[in-house]
Amino acid sequence: MRNDGEGLYLKRKEGRDMGVKWTLHSLVPALLIVLITALLVFAFVFISSMTTAIDRMIVMLGSGNIVLYDDYDISEWEKAEKYHVTTSSGVVFSDNGKSLVNIKGIEEGYFNGERGETLKLRKIESAARNPIIVSKTLSDRMKLDFGDTMTLMVYEEEKNRARPVLVTVTGIFDSGYAQLDRYLCYVDYSLLGGEGEWEVVLRDNNETDKRAQELWEKGIWSETYRDKYSSLYLNVQQSVTILYVILASVALLAAFFSTDIVHVYLSRDYRDIAALSILGMDKKRIRRIYLILSLRAVMVASLLGTLIGLILGSLSPLLIKAVAISNPGLVEYYISSFSVKVPWSAIILMILAMALLSLITLYVSIRKEKELFKVSYEA
Questions:
Q1: What are phi and psi of 119, to 5 degrees?
Q2: Is 251 within the bounds of a domain?
C-alpha cells in the first residue's frame, strides 16, 4: 500500500496524469499568468530602455554630464570631452512664421563623435557667414530646409536689448526627443560671445557623480546635468516610480490566478486524494504533491510569458516609431528612436519574487481546502 502511494505521488509529480480535462480547465488562469508576465517583462524592458535613452539624451541635448563654470583640465579623465559654450535666448523670423528659440553658441568639433551620431545631425557645406543648426522639430514646425535664411533676434543680457542677425540653415538634427529640442538651435560661439561655460561629456553617465565629487573637493564650481535639469529629471523619475507601483499591483494578479490552478487540481482529484489518505500517505505529503504540481504549472506559464515579453520588448522601438508617425502628440515625452536595454537583474528578481509569492498563495490556498483532505468514500 505504501509503494502504491509512492507510485501515485511520483506519477502526479511528473505530470503524467494531465488529461484533456485538466488542460481545458486550467487554460484560462494559465493564459492570464502568461499575459501578465509578458506585460511585466515588456514594461521592464521598455522602461529601462526609455529611461536610459532619455538620461543620455539630456546629456547630449542639454549641457553634457557636467557643466564647469570655472575652467578645469580634464585631460586625465579617460575618454572625456570638454567644449566651451555659451547660451542665450531669442526669436527667429522666417517666411513661414516665427518662434522662440534657445540658442547655444558652440566651438568647432562640438558635434564630433557620439553627440553627432546620437542627434543624427545632417549638414551641408556652406559659405554662409552665420550658419545655424536647428532641430527637426523646429524645422518641421517652421517648414525650414537647408539653405533657408532667417532673421535671428539674439537677446543681449548685458545691454538688455535684442540684436538682429541674418542666419542660414546649414544643419538639421533629429534627436527624437521633442521635449528638449523643440526650441533648440546652435550657432557659432563668436556670434553670441560672452564668457560662457564648459560642457563635459563622459563616456558613461554612471561616472557623473564620481567626477562631480572630485570637482567639489577641489573647489571647482560645477553642476551635474541632473541638477541643471532637475525638474525634467524628477518628472521622469516620478513617472517611472508610478509605473513600477502599477506593475507591482499587476504582479499580484498572477498570484491570484495561481490559486485557480490549485483549485483545478484539487477539484479534479478529490477521489484520488481520499485514496492516497487511505493508502497511508499523510496530509502534509499530499499537500506537497499538489503544491509542486501547481507551482510548476505557474512557473511554466511565467517563463513562457517572459519569453513573449522579451520579444515584444525588442519590438518597442518600432512601436514608438509607428505611434510617432500616426500621432506625434502621444509620444511627445518619449524618445522616438532608442536602443533596447534588457534589465536582466530586474527581470530575474521579478520572476523569483513571483515564484515566492505564488508559493505562498498556493500553500495558503491548499491549506484552506480542508474538506478535500478528509478521508471519505462518499465520492
A1: -85, 0
A2: yes
Is 207 part of any domain?
no
Residue 159: give the domain boundaries: 81-201
Q: 287 and 367 in one domain?
A: yes
**Domain boundary pick from 201, 222, 247:** 201
Bridge partners for 223 per DSSP: 67
pTM (predicted TM-score): 0.74
190 with 274, same domain?
no
Task: Provide φ and ψ at 280, rounded to 5°.
Answer: 105, 5
Give how far Cα 285 sits from Cα of 106, 172, 295, Å.
Answer: 74, 70, 15
Per-residue pLDDT tens for 133-187? 999 999 999 999 999 999 999 887 777 778 899 999 999 999 888 888 889 999 9
What does residue 120 show for φ and ψ, rounded to 5 degrees? 50, 55
Dist. CA 12–CA 23, nearest whole Å: 15
Supply 175's cell numbers.
Answer: 534627436
End position of a domain, from candidates 159, 183, 201 = 201
State residue 378's pLDDT score.
Answer: 44
Number of domains in the chain: 2
Give pLDDT tens digits for 326-368.
776 666 667 777 888 898 988 888 888 877 877 787 777 777 6
Q: From CA 274, how far away is CA 8, in angstroms rounded?
A: 12
- Do 365 and 253 sit in the same domain of this protein? yes
More confident: 273 or 232: 232
Domain membership flag for residue 40: yes
Q: Taking Cα atoms as reference points, which of 92, 87, 123, 91 lies closest to residue 105?
A: 87
Please give the mean pLDDT across all residues of the chain: 80
3-state secondary structure of 163: strand
Report yes or no on 64 lying in a domain. no
Residue scoring higher pLDDT (349 or 223): 223
**166 Cβ partners below 8 Å, 6+ apart?**
129, 130, 149, 150, 151, 152
